[in-house]
Amino acid sequence: MGIYDDWVAANPDQSDKQIANVEFCLKAIDEWGGRPATIVLSVADTGSNNAHTSINNAIAALPSGGGKIILLEGTYNLGSYINVNKDNVTIQGMGPSTILNLTNAISGVTGIITMSSNYCRVADLRVTNSTSINVTNGIYISGSNNIIEKCFVSSSSGSGGIWGVLIKFGANYNTVSNNIFDLNVANRNCTAAVDINGGNYNLIIGNIIRHNSEDGVYGIYLGDIQGCQHNCIIGNSISPNSRGDTYSSIGIYLSNANTNSHIDDNIIVNNTIANTSYGPARLFAILVDSKTARNLIMGNNLRGVIDAGRTAYTTNGTSAVTLPGSPTTIGSLPNGGVCGFNIV
What we know:
The protein is mainly beta. The chain is built from 4 helices and 30 strands. The protein folds into 2 domains: about 1-30, no CATH class; about 40-340, Pectate Lyase C-like. The protein is about 10% helix and about 35% strand. Strand 29 and strand 30 (about 335-340) form a beta hairpin. Mean pLDDT is about 80; it is low at about 15-20.
């Protein structure tokens, strides 16, 4: 017998109305195993250098149906990654004053926050790393139906590539919205603020992306040999800034690695791209690989990208191609795609 049944047996003379008043609460305690659905943590609760342990323990302490971890203001120094491995979990800070700071290198396919579960949410906090610590991913998503919103991702690296948010193959229906990305990397290319690496039906909307790299940056990257389809990239402000000695600097990149992959049926609309990169390498606002199909690029503001070696559009990452359509007309992209009403 559970807590509720014990209470009814001990109080047979109570009215139906009184029983009804407590029924929900007592049944909830039974179903949730007596565990709290919301846990509040402060820096004082988590220790000086291993806050990830306390946060991961809090996630484990939530009921099987999920719950919320509230992180109060302060800097939480992480010796390893935060492992969101339970469905329906929210990790919420108090805005930019809640800082998750990685102080130790992590290995494997992970991020400072690693989300392998579904229907989870990370919001209202800052994700960063100590300057001496190289990190690959700020937030790594391999689950589906997750939300990243109102976060400030400011990872930096001395020698390795950085992905602010990496969405892996099989991670679908995720939303990345209203975040600020300020990423800095030296001596290495392969840097993207948001990388949809094979996921489908993901929404990237309303983000501000400021990017600095010694050599080569991507604002938003879509591509994987296993396919990347039906994603929506809407209303983002992207400002890549790279010296560009060898590698491309690209605002939005739809990359088809080979003819067997499908970077198809994606929507790129109402984004603003100001590529301020410089140097002798290839500098483009948008790259749509010639092997992609049925993508839609409409209503983007690409002002100021055609000067000093910068150009609006390419299909091969090497030479400039005239942007299809015009601010008032529609043109064709490779393999059935549509492009038009873009301002250059």
